[in-house]
Amino acid sequence: MKSLGKFGDFGGIFVPETLMPALEQLERSFLKLKYDEKFSSDLNGLLRKYAGRPTPLSFCENLSKEFGCKIYLKREDLLHTGAHKINNAIGQALLAKRIGKKRLIAETGAGQHGVAVATAGARLNFKTDVYMGAKDIERQKLNVLRMKLLGANVIPVESGSKTLKDAINEALRDWTGSIKDTHYLLGSVLGPHPYPTMIKFFQSVIGKETKKQILEAEGKLPDLIVACVGGGSNAIGIFNEFIKDKSIKLAGVEAGGSGIESGKHASRFSDKKLGRCGVVHGTKTYVLQDKYGQIHNTYSVAAGLDYCAVGPEHSFLRQIKRVEYYYATDKEAVEAFKILSRQEGIIPALESAHAVAYALKIAKTMKRDGIIVINLSGRGDKDLDQIEEIL
Ligand SMILES: *Cc1c(COP(=O)(O)O)cnc(C)c1O
What we know:
By secondary structure, the chain is of the alpha/beta class. The chain has helices spanning 20-33, 37-51, 61-67, 85-99, 112-123, 134-139, 141-149, 164-178, 195-203, 205-218, 233-239, 312-319, 330-344, 350-363, 384-390, and strands at 6-7, 10-11, 57-59, 70-75, 103-108, 127-133, 153-157, 182-184, 224-228, 249-255, 275-280, 283-288, 323-328, 371-376.
């Protein structure tokens, strides 16, 4: 392979040999199509006329007044299917089409990624199979119905804890035997090379638009950009364009769950005891693990942030101190969810509410003309049952 996909000490490829041909083919095709004019124009066409790009950058008039600096939201919540995940699903599905694959497989926890893949699969005429833990299928009835309506086959996984990590294992097992006609459509900047790099490429449209839009609105770049970090794809998507602008502070916000001391959270970077470097699902990165190196159970009110590992590039960006990582607890996220709904008329996804919570905390310490951009990764419709229970 041309590059081994390392981000400093992190990333790489840790997979059984049987998967190497598929990863090599994927890397080759990606490196070629990335600069292909026809591919770019097909992709841009779909993003514009199907997914709803460019998304607006909205100024929060009310919050800005109250919290004392200029607060903007990058509106990924307005995309088709309700979150940034569609950018990646369409990108990879189009790539798979160009390589001649006929079938998409994916794994999903809460079902959001499964819905994005089923959507791209329907639009681009794939047979789509989505692996999902039996327990998650029970908990996420609406998304299971969505996937079925979109023509995807939802395969229940009965092994292990019957949740996301078991679904990942099943999807990988499937791919080992089906790489000829099947593309494995991974959902975040995780897994073995080339996934983290390729998914960053498809999500970096967020930051490119943001830079143009903030320069148009303010005539200068922001002081702070905030995004929530599950696997880390919406965060890398908005950060990437600004990494070289050293004066801009970049902040990633993980799920603090019930608090770090409680052990019930998904904060790989803030928990000094459980969060350590390890290898999981094909990549080397920060992982929540016990003293024996077994994956530690994670928890968050936001299903999309509830994962044991973080994208390897985030581990690197933290090591070189280019991005700083914080966390917001369930309680802080729900509070931010309410504030944004009431003050700006925008109901955010609970994941995105973590970024809002941190941003509002910092806003009070900033100068009046300071500028914060929050990546609003998704909308909150999917979370209403949960919010009703909490309130
Ligand atoms: C899936 C999801 C996330 C977390 O994924 P990242 O890869 O960290 O971006 C965040 N927000 C929303 C709305 C999601 O659906």
